[in-house]
């Protein structure tokens, strides 16, 4: 929750004259590389006795598809925002909660009762509410209620594909992690090897004249390390819990995001933030608290 919630404030701290000065694809490559190095470190440190375990191609190939789905989603996030404004993306991207839950229920055969579905829709409502204006700059005369969303037909199609791939990549990866009798550090090593490879190809395929490390600062390095740790932590969550738990972690992270935004940027909490908090509280109670 802390890592997820701190990501947007860290990106804001990286901005120069209101814009991101570095290549997002470079950051993704470095995040994947950091996860690869950390996975190797954990394998050598904690699972050294399993280094001799037999690994065949049928263990490896599924992670290539998983890495391909993640890489496709990372690139889709960048390109689809050409067809919509950032606010629309923030609001509609919450649909991936429903798409992930549907695919989780279908492919992993985890039947969810109506109470749990209601909890997940409340999670989505919390995300939409917060995205619509949970925070407000006191120096900005515009009100969250006046927010105007804009999206083209192509943008609507791309956001639908994004939510589908996001859910599919998460559920497919969970299935691999749970069905293979391999240590998690070894599974991560294979996954992030393909992650580095595919994202490197994507970076140089769409690279501009900007240098690989151009615009980097100490805050960017913090983002790289934090996002790498986030990926490793989420792999533990998916292997030993589920994608539903991951969705709750992501939704609850808006609390961390709000606290940091208020402390660092003097933003104000609005009514929509408290609506989001109420929805999250009800969702947690319905999903985990009611028997």
UniProtKB/TrEMBL annotation:
Transmembrane residue ranges: 20-43, 50-71, 91-108, 117-133, 153-177, 189-206, 218-237, 244-265, 271-290
InterPro entries (UniProt xref): EmrE-like, Nuc_sug_transpt
Recorded GO MF terms: pyrimidine nucleotide-sugar transmembrane transporter activity
GO-annotated cellular components: Golgi membrane
Keyword Transport belongs to the record: yes
UniProt entry keywords in alphabetical sequence: Membrane, Sugar transport, Transmembrane, Transmembrane helix, Transport
Keyword Transmembrane helix carried by entry: yes
Family per record: Belongs to the nucleotide-sugar transporter family. SLC35A subfamily.
Protein name, per record: Probable UDP-sugar transporter protein SLC35A4
Organism phylogeny: Eukaryota, Metazoa, Chordata, Craniata, Vertebrata
């Amino acid at each position: 929750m802390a890592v997820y919630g701190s990501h947007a404030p860290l990106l804001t701290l990286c901005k120069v004259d209101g814009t991101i000065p570095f290549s997002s694809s470079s950051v993704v490559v470095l995040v994947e590389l950091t996860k690869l190095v950390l996975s190797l470190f954990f394998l050598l440190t904690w699972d050294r006795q399993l280094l001799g375990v037999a690994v065949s191609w049928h263990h490896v190939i599924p992670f290539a598809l998983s890495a391909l789905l993640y890489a496709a989603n990372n690139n889709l996030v960048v390109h689809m925002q050409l067809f919509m404004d950032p606010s629309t993306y923030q609001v509609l991207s919450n649909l991936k909660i429903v798409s992930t839950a549907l695919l989780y229920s279908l492919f992993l055969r985890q039947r969810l009762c109506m109470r749990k579905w209601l909890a997940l829709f409340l999670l989505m409502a919390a995300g939409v509410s917060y995205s619509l204006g949970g925070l407000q700059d006191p120096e900005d005369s515009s009100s969250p209620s006046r927010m105007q969303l804009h999206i083209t037909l192509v943008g609507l199609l791309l956001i639908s594909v994004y939510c589908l791939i996001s859910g599919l990549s998460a559920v497919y990866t969970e299935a691999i992690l749970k069905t293979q009798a391999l240590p998690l550090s070894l599974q991560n090593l294979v996954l992030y090897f393909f992650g580095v490879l595919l994202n490197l190809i994507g970076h140089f395929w769409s690279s501009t004249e900007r240098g690989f490390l151009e615009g980097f600062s100490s805050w960017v390095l913090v983002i790289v390390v934090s996002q790498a740790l986030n990926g490793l932590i989420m792999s533990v969550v998916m292997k030993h819990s589920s994608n539903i738990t991951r969705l709750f972690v992501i939704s609850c992270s808006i609390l961390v995001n709000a606290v940091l935004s208020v402390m660092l940027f003097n933003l104000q909490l609005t009514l929509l933030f408290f609506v989001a908090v109420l929805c999250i509280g009800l969702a947690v109670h319905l999903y985990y608290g009611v028997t």
